[in-house]
């Protein structure tokens, strides 16, 4: 069985190859490791291999992992602080020795959560009664899909004294299980978000229908890129495209993804009860 570190090395090299083939800079594509259903120990193992950007699906699940993860990373976080006041370049020491095409991009996307030396994004639907807690324990919300949720997040972020980066999730798939707003309503939402100064709209996110053939996802990725480009005049900060998962991230990179979300490729297939 391959280790998490080995899987990360393989994936980073695959991202580099995909970027080369698409004539793109690997530094423009961040790797987000999807840690939903994974234990704190697995997240710590990915962290030890240089990963800093993670995604979780549920507020309660991430909150339940925080105490143990804080213990696992506590000594490493202390070392970060010690190194910052020494002559040692700790960032260089922690950077993996193997080629890491997404390392700098992932660091650029990371805004470390309070008390933990990593960045965590919410990539699952946010229930209205979890809005305040979500704003407090996540560094970004990548699944914004309504003005009501945005207003709640804005109020929660204001109370916390923070600005919350968000991605707008767009539903391009006809599947009932998929979340997100209808693409034709995107301009109206972007306009309505402008007065919400604690919300920083950074881009779009989508989840295409799953298929064994990754080419099936291409038109969905292409459409998301078109939506971003069409709405840049209305929202100049609309630059990010979070699209591409373990089975189709190469296609996503070819279509302009700036952040790929990989879980299975790093941790292996999940076992369901």
Would you write up a description of this structure?
With 273 residues, the protein is α/β, with parallel strands linked by helices. The protein has a single domain, classed as Alpha-Beta Barrel (TIM Barrel), CATH 3.20.20. 43% of the residues lie in helices and 14% in strands. The protein has helices at 4-21, 40-48, 59-84, 90-94, 103-109, 131-137, 147-160, 186-193, 218-231, 249-254, 264-267, and strands spanning 30-34, 53-56, 119-122, 140-144, 164-169, 199-205, 240-242, 259-262. The chain has an 8-stranded parallel sheet. Helix 9 links the parallel strand 6 and strand 7 (240-242). Helix 2 packs parallel to helix 3 (59-84) and helix 6 (131-137) packs across helix 7 (147-160). The two termini are 22 Å apart. Mean pLDDT is 86; it is low at 79-114.
Write the layout of secondary structure elements.
Blueprint: H1 4-21, E1 30-34, H2 40-48, E2 53-56, H3 59-84, H4 90-94, H5 103-109, E3 119-122, H6 131-137, E4 140-144, H7 147-160, E5 164-169, H8 186-193, E6 199-205, H9 218-231, E7 240-242, H10 249-254, E8 259-262, H11 264-267
Parallel strand pairs: 1-2, 1-8, 2-3, 3-4, 4-5, 5-6, 6-7
